[in-house]
Design goal:
Strand content: over 45%
Radius of gyration: 13 Å
Largest sheet: 7 strands, mixed
Structural class: mainly beta
Order of helices and strands: EEEEEEEEEEE
Helix content: under 10%
Number of helices: 0
Distance between the termini: 37 Å
Number of strands: 11
Oligomer: single chain
Shape: globular
């Protein structure tokens, strides 16, 4: 299994970013995919998840600002983030899991991409 995130960077408050995660080594179209983040000094926090049937779930703190999507033809999952604020600064990780909600032992994660929101 390989998960490779991209799309992070340094942006100003109020900006948008689109993260991508290229997946390989497993049957992507039938897998649940996650996004999680880890801010400095904090634990891994679940952000969003999407089931194989495109059903989506979001953490309450991000609902309305973030949108998760997937392209099964390209084995890619995305996280569109709008109206970013400094509290969104973190390393964002793409994951493959048995379910789309929460973080569980056994989840498989990529190497992460840094998102920094600062003026």
């Amino acid at each position: 299994v390989q998960l490779v995130e991209s799309g992070g960077g340094l942006v100003q408050p109020g900006s948008s970013l689109r993260l991508s995660c290229a997946a390989s080594g497993f049957t992507f179209s039938s897998s649940s995919m996650l996004w999680a983040r880890q801010a400095p000094g904090r634990g891994l926090e679940w952000v969003s998840g999407i089931y194989f049937d495109y059903t989506t779930y979001y953490a309450d703190s991000d609902k309305g600002r973030f949108t998760i999507s997937r392209n099964n033809a390209e084995n890619t999952v995305y996280l569109e983030m709008n109206n970013l604020n400094p509290e969104d600064t973190a390393v964002y990780y793409c994951g493959m899991s048995e379910t789309a909600v929460g973080i569980k032992e056994g989840d498989i994660w990529g190497q992460g991409t840094q998102v920094t929101v600062s003026s």
